[in-house]
Amino acid sequence: MAVERREPSVITVGGKGSSLSSASVFAVANGIASVRIDSSALDKLSSHQPPSVKFRFYIPNYLTPEEARASLLLLLNKLLLSATSGAVIRPALPVLISDTLNLGLGSGFGPLEDAIDVTDEELVVLEKSSATLDGICAILDHQSLDLSTIADAVAALSCEAARADVSAFNLMDSGDGFTAKDEIGVASDLKILLNGSKLVGQLESDAVSEIPKVHGSLREIARLVHSRTRVELNSAVVKGGKGAFRSRGSGKVLATSLSPLAAALRYLGESSLCRAKLNVDLMANDDLRCSMMQMFDRGCSSMDSLRNLFILISQAAFEEDYIKFLHEINSLAGMVRIIVSWEAIIAFVSLEWSELIEKLQANVPLKVDMNGENVKAEKKNERRKKVLGKGTTVLMQFIKDNLQSRINEVGDHSALLEKKAQVLLSFLDPKDTAFDSLLKKVKEIVESNETRRLPKLPKGTRDFAKEQMAIRERAFSIIVEVFKRHGAMALDTPAFELRETLMGKYGEDSKLIYDLADQGGELCSLRYDLTVPFARYVAMNGITSFKRYQIAKVYRRDNPSKGRYREFYQCDFDIAGQYEAMGPDFEVIKILTELLDELNIGDYEVKLNHRKLLDGMLDICGVPPEKFRTICSSIDKLDKQSFDQIKKEMVDEKGLTVETADKIGTLVKERGAPLGLLSKLKQEGSKFLENKGSLLALKELEILFKALEKSKCIDKVIFDLSLARGLDYYTGVIFEAVFKGAMQVGSIAAGGRYDNLIGMFGTKQVPAVGVSLGIERVFTIMEQLQKDRNQATRATETEVLVGVLGDDLSLAAELVSELWNARVKAEYMVSKRVMKHIDRARESKIPWLIIVGEREMNEGIVKLKDIEAGKEDDVSRDRLVEELQRRLNGMSP
């Protein structure tokens, strides 16, 4: 059956800011659109240079008319682009090519079939433009993107026709960067199409379970080909001293990009063939199965045909015959499209076979089985039980409506099947008028299906409701007050930094950094913490002394768990500059204990160690210096894993000997009261005293512990040799606060000294030490404590509700404005029912209610009600603000 072609459109080339798309190339190549050269482009061309050489267009005879026309369109575009880049091009040549393209599909190439006169510069563009390669590539780009979408929809129909087990579609993005997003995308789209289906879930088949991988691969590669094609379509031929710079290089670039596409198309075709054969074999009606098998074998390519064509593609690539290479891939794409079309035909007929048989055999006597039951009634009951997915139901109806508009007559069984197959084949041809409608319908189903309309949060994030915001604001106010008490100044930095700023600062945790998509400019990443941006700021501005605080969100691609998020607040306090020995270190630990005490979250401990002591310990145990950081990362996991697990990692993955690992195991078990353990480590004969780094660390820790003892907060500190802190930038004291309550939330704060970090961004080293409070986990603790204590949280700070009985908004505006002007926190409500005002005050926990009705207005008073006590008094209208302020301040009359 002939394809129903669209009404032709017009594609304009050469206009200011215009670019050629693959869809435009496909439309012109197939006679769906005509070509028009923008008048401004023609005006820029020059007629002064006379032609000097003869040129004959070479179009390989194996190219299809579609491919040849695409080549001419690309040649036209290259001529116009090259003219804007300085090449001298006459108007006659672009006009000749445009006129030839507009002759139509069956008209050949007219004057271009003979040799034509061209100038030297035109010859450079004609010979070196790689227009044939780019033209075929554009067709492939357009078809592969469309095929990817249609193949997913057809596969969904096949799954229902086969009653297939679709559990393989239950894929989730773990968010750790190790999942194939296109596989997950395909699985998600199929689940949307099949949502609500009662047909799937029975038959296990490799041809079904492999759909996410096979289709996801095509989706991924088609997107990459699209990016490459956009560049090639709109690049000019640059004329150099010896002609053009671009020649065979384009073929190699396209071969590199399109070889994976050939493989993806082949495997898609093989997978589609398997599902088509599966559904033919599963057809219950013998006559239908026989007819479909004959039509399928006659009209569809075989597995051998696919593989033989793939061999031709590989051979052309090996021989560097790039035009042949692209032509064969285009042939493969066409073959796969027909295979997918046959998969659609078989799935459609299989799902509708009982209805089809009923129409064709309306006058055939009913068959009766051995039990005397009506077979036709049985089929009817079976059909009634069938429930397709919500997406596939819409798709099936769309196909049926289009079939009905093209097939009006009813013939014998085989003839009608043949007609339906031919209509569906043309229907799935990209040149057909209905194809765009089908493509649009599939995208509409996938993008607007109700499962997608249900809003949800990204994993690792949270919303803060009004009660939670009240807790958060209270916590922030306490934190800021403590920071300011110690003389800190506020700082704010961007949410994202240059990627190079963040790289190399976080050790093995660098893999958790969120990279932003390259928008054609700088490579950026979301900030991982607030310390590195602070160091960058200090270095960039030449600051040598700064005591700062910052409360802001940071981002980590971590595995979410209770109290662990991918977007969360950090509250940082840092001291940068030269000070007395261990002074800043003492102050940040003191600040940490003040914060946790005043937030009133319960019992906690601050584990503390020294990086130089840790390095000395590793040296004493025989760890090579180049492995210090990676072994520290292993030790840092001891709060989550047993030492046996850590030992296995250090030996099997990081190359330590068992003896060295055991020595580390003995030392990292040391923990206790700071001054007591310090005294033990300084005993005569201690190997720590023989190591230069650890000896310096012990001296610094002695100064620190004595200061903490005098400040009466040392009882909260535990000296713990297993504390490692995995971040690479720490150089001295390191510490970590851990909540000791029933709720397991892990570390709630951490910090340490980083003397070399600021110097990494500038020429001057500025020593610094800081603490970071993981406020999200503190919020979790505070919320749970509030629930445990049965404490209700007030979402607002409203002190009084002005209740006007009636509908007089102006009266409410007058009263509430007086209160606002007096800095009283007030709200208003207008309602005729007294209980509505009282209920509103109770629900919002507003302590005072002012009631004003007609009687109160006439008497010049208001009623002032204490909601909690249930008492109310009449107050003179003139003394309302004064009396309310007195009661809010707790003053007696």
TrEMBL record:
GO CC annotation terms, alphabetical: cytosol; mitochondrion
EC assignment: 6.1.1.21
Record keywords, A-Z: Aminoacyl-tRNA synthetase, ATP-binding, Ligase, Nucleotide-binding, Protein biosynthesis
Biological process, per Gene Ontology: histidyl-tRNA aminoacylation; mitochondrial translation
Domain Aminoacyl-transfer RNA synthetases class-II family profile stretches: 436-782
GO molecular function: ATP binding; histidine-tRNA ligase activity; RNA binding
Superkingdom of source: Eukaryota
Transmembrane segments: none
A Pfam family hit: tRNA-synt_His
Catalytic reaction annotation: tRNA(His) + L-histidine + ATP = L-histidyl-tRNA(His) + AMP + diphosphate + H(+)
Family statement drawn from the similarity comment of this UniProt entry: Belongs to the class-II aminoacyl-tRNA synthetase family.
Protein name from the UniProt record: Histidine--tRNA ligase, cytoplasmic
